[in-house]
Amino acid sequence: MQGKELAETLEHILKYLLIGVLLASAMMVLFVFVINWEDWFFGTKLDGTPAGIFLALKGISGLLLSYLILRFPGRIGEISILAIAYCGFLFASSAVTIQKLTGGRQSFSSTLAVFLSVPVLFLAVHIVNRNYGRGES
């Protein structure tokens, strides 16, 4: 019984950490949207309106995912898969850009790697909890 409670507490903590990661990434992107409409898409520099649209979409996506987690807790598994796709896209795009700009000396952003690991870890814990609860019934 104690193991199940610990696993549920871990999932609960990771859920709010996931919401924090999504909100933080959305706020970072929206900050750039407000300050300077300039962004990189897989190593290609975007300026002006295309960059503004891209930044707005990335920021709104993060906000929407965090809202969906709070609004539909029964669909948390599916939403966490979308969060993995969102964070994975941010990570992959920045990794290509970083490699291009540094000439291959640096591979990726460690911050975005941590941001990607949170939804992956949450989904793994969620699946284990769901299957563990089924086995006891």
* Unreliable residue runs: none
Which value, in Å, is the CA radius of gyration? 17 Å
General shape: elongated
Overall SS class: mainly alpha
Largest sheet: 2 strands, antiparallel
Percent of residues in helices comes to over 70%
Order of helices and strands: HEEHHH
How many DSSP H or I helices?
4
Mean pLDDT: 91
> Strand portion, in percent?
5-15%
N- to C-terminal separation? Answer: 13 Å
Number of strands: 2
Tally of domains: 1
Strand order of the largest sheet: 1-2
How is the secondary structure organized here?
Layout: H1 2-35, E1 38-41, E2 44-47, H2 48-71, H3 76-102, H4 110-136
Antiparallel strand pairs: 1-2
Helix pairs in contact: 1-2, 1-4, 2-3, 3-4
Provide a compact summary of the structure.
By secondary structure, this protein is mainly alpha-helical. Helices cover 82% and strands 6% of the residues.
Give your account of this protein's structure.
The protein has helices spanning 2-35, 48-71, 76-102, 110-136, and strands at 38-41, 44-47. With 137 residues, it is mainly alpha-helical. A two-stranded antiparallel ribbon has the order 1-2. The two termini are 13 Å apart.
